[in-house]
Design brief:
By secondary structure, this protein is of the alpha/beta class. The protein is 28% helix and 19% strand. One 2-acetamido-2-deoxy-beta-D-glucopyranose binds at residues 459, 461-462.
């Protein structure tokens, strides 16, 4: 969909002020302007036949959270009884009432039942209509538009109406105001150079330099000795797998389980370097030398080896070296998403693991998501195969170290995607996202200059806080970053019962704060209210939504500073919540292994359990997440919008989750 519901709402308000439309139709969607590069040409040839598609509203979305709670809340009798994809499709399919009401309307306009086909996903009614029929049904006029550069035609209208009593049953109608035609550019070089001039045009999240990638890349010549004791004595300067095992008290794994799985998502052109994996394994996981992730290539996803630098390899090398080491010999699945030309977005990935998401609520947004088959066909690396809709299965834990600012996307787009995470939770998948690396500011340190969803960004020294998405979706687990306190020996600290960690304030600051889009979920309501009561922040509504009614993040944190990572043939120090998320994902994968071995299900959506049992996390109480010209929020006892509930304590987490369902 090309525009947000808020624009539609504005259109409706404007309409309400004007004279009411005749008969019982009411305006359903309206576009305020034709997208750039499209010109209105002619009225449509009356003999044309239009392939009409009516998207029906999904039912039961408001029930979704109750269902997810049933399978993920510790006190529920149905804890762990996850759903199959088929059960999910049925539960959210449009109601019979919607199908019947829309069919009755079509019949009354002369489109009889036998001309109508219901899609397999159950959410679309499809039929061919003459222009007269379509215009009468929707009280609109169709025109032909032409693409300036390619001459490609597209049939569209500027607004359309449906009978008022059907408003709640009809989600959208195609073709109408949408311009998601797959444009075949004539001159790709000019198109691509435009993308390079205006990075905003290119929306792939894997673009080098995009703010959610990890920071650092400073080479470290040689590391301290090989003895474990010596290694652990320097965890304040060099984080290694053994440091993480010591901090969170989890063991070297020795088992692989066929039922278990762990997925890491990477967005092209980000890619791992095979020799980097071996270089890392040779030092930190000898038996894993030669191991590679299972590659699930989505929409032409390639592990490119042409562009080699920290900006292209740092993220994937970091994620895979740590995830593969910490869960070895358990295999790790690499979802590599997008081709070399367009890259991809989270929606492209979600389409691949759930075919019904490709069309759900109108499908992808071509202004945000990559289009496949790639229309940029004569550019090297364009993927010309079909879009991946389904066909890949979701692993039990999925960790993603990329993110947007909530402010970059429309609330409609975000809610649609967030519902999909709810469905993954119902299926027993733990979805982890890093919470961002700029404290209360957004990617690259941007802050929002004033209220409203259209407010511009400023240079980051003032303005409103800029929360990160999908971290603010209440159905994902948002992972923040900690660091070992400088000059701290973690072995001594742990032995004396002193917390060796604090919020990360080296190079990066843990992303955290409160959503401007998503309501406060009930599982964290007490924790968030307690924090506001006990540690009232010194900022007002001009800085963030302080209503105490919106989602707070992160949920949990893990170390995100000084990771020793092999990148492009040298060891570097790397920083970011990009490191924290795969580390937490590895620990959950070990817990899943223990549960699966005992015939239990995966841990699935962990937040309801986590907030009921904060005692299984190491509370982090020091450090802040500065940004937007402020010190940001402060860590504090209990949940806080810097480090969430704290870092993992594996023995306690394991004991808790083995007790459950
Ligand atoms: C990796 O191992 C080599 C050879 O034992 C050693 O010289 C080097 O310092 C190690 N590098 C790191 C980062 O531990
Ligand atoms: C990536 O490599 C290709 C081929 O060498 C080159 O044309 C392109 O400019 C490189 N891209 C970047 C961003 O360095
Ligand atoms: C794409 O094709 C056009 C027409 O054949 C050609 O002029 C242009 O140079 C090509 N662009 C690239 C990047 O190959
Ligand atoms: C950022 O913007 C503020 C307010 O407009 C200005 O005072 C400040 O000098 C700017 N800082 C930088 C580094 O550009
Ligand atoms: C803050 O969130 C609440 C709850 O969603 C909402 O009602 C309110 O309008 C928001 N405040 C601002 C300033 O956006």
């Amino acid at each position: 969909m090309l525009f947000s519901h808020s624009i539609l709402a504005a259109a409706l308000t404007a309409l309400a002020a004007a004279s009411p439309i005749a008969d019982t139709h009411s305006l359903h969607e309206k576009r305020s302007q034709v997208p750039p590069q499209w010109q209105k040409r002619d009225v449509l040839d009356r003999r044309a036949i239009l392939p009409m598609k009516i998207g029906l509203t999904q039912s039961n979305l408001d029930q979704g959270w109750d269902w997810l709670k049933e399978v993920s809340h510790p006190s529920s009798a149905k804890y762990g009884k996850h759903w199959s994809p088929k059960q999910i499709a049925h539960a959210f399919a449009p109601s019979d009432e919607s199908v019947d009401a829309v069919k009755a309307w079509l019949a009354s306009a002369g489109v009889s039942e036998h001309r109508i086909k219901q899609s397999q996903s159950l959410s679309w009614l499809e039929f061919d209509a003459t222009v007269d029929e379509a215009e009468a049904l929707l009280k609109t006029t169709y025109n032909v538009y032409e693409h300036e550069e390619t001459g490609q035609p597209h049939v569209a209208c500027e607004e359309y109406s449906v009978p008022s009593h059907l408003k709640e049953h009809v989600d959208m109608v195609y073709p109408t105001v949408h311009f998601d035609a797959k444009v075949k550019p004539r001159d790709l070089s000019s198109d691509l150079s435009k993308r390079e001039r205006d990075p905003g045009v290119y929306k792939g999240v894997g673009k080098p330099g995009s703010g959610s990638l990890p920071k650092g890349g400073w080479h470290i010549g040689h590391h301290h000795g090989h003895k474990l004791e010596e290694e652990l004595a320097t965890c304040d300067e060099y984080i290694t797998p053994d440091c993480l095992r010591a901090l969170y008290e989890f063991p070297i794994n020795h088992r692989a389980d066929r039922k278990n799985s762990y997925g890491i998502v990477e967005y092209t052109p980000q890619s791992y370097v095979p020799s980097d994996l071996d270089m890392f394994f040779a030092n930190f996981s000898r038996k894993a030398v030669g191991e590679r992730p299972i590659l699930d290539s989505i929409d032409g996803g390639v592990v490119q080896q042409t562009n080699m630098s920290f900006g292209f390899n740092g993220e994937s090398d970091l994620d895979l070296e740590y995830a593969m080491t910490l869960v070895y010999p358990q295999k790790v699945t690499l979802y590599q998403v997008g081709d070399l030309v367009e890259g991809a977005s989270f929606n492209n990935f979600l389409d691949a693991i759930d075919g019904s998401y490709c069309t759900y609520e109108g499908g992808d947004d071509p202004s945000q998501d990559a289009i496949y088959p790639d229309p940029y066909t004569n550019y090297t690396g364009a993927y010309e195969g079909p879009e991946n809709c389904g066909g890949y299965s979701a692993t039990k834990v999925i960790s993603t170290s990329y993110g947007y600012n909530e402010h970059d996307l429309t609330p409609f787009y975000e809610r649609r995607q967030c519902h999909e995470y709810l469905k993954l939770g119902l299926m027993g998948v733990s979805v982890l996202y890093s919470s961002g690396d700029y404290g209360v500011a957004g990617n690259g340190g941007q802050c929002i200059d004033g209220p409203g969803i259209d407010a511009p960004y400023n240079n980051g020294t003032s303005g409103r806080f800029n929360p990160s998405f999908p971290a603010t979706c209440p159905y994902v687990t948002a992972v923040g970053a900690t660091q070992v306190k400088p000059n701290t020996n973690i072995v001594d600290a742990l032995a004396s019962g002193t917390q060796p960690e604090e919020a990360c304030e080296t190079v990066i600051y843990s992303g955290g704060g409160f959503s401007n889009v998503f309501a406060l979920p009930d599982y964290q309501a007490d924790a968030v209210h307690e924090w506001f009561d006990n540690y009232p922040p010194p900022y007002g509504a001009d800085r963030f939504n302080n209503s105490m009614q919106t989602r707070g993040f992160p949920d949990i944190s893990a170390n995100g500073a000084n990771y020793v990572v092999a990148v492009d043939g040298t060891f570097s120090l790397v920083f970011g919540t990009s490191a924290s998320s795969p580390t937490l994902g590895s620990i959950l994968t070990l817990i899943n292994q223990a549960r699966l071995t005992r015939g239990k299900s995966s841990v699935g959506f962990i937040n309801p359990v986590a907030y009921e049992h904060p005692e299984v996390f190491n509370d982090i109480t020091e450090g802040g997440n500065q940004g937007c010209g402020t010190p940001g929020f402060e860590s504090a006892p209990g949940w806080d919008p810097v480090t969430g509930l704290g870092t993992p304590n594996y023995p306690k987490m394991l004991k808790l989750w083995l007790r459950m369902g």
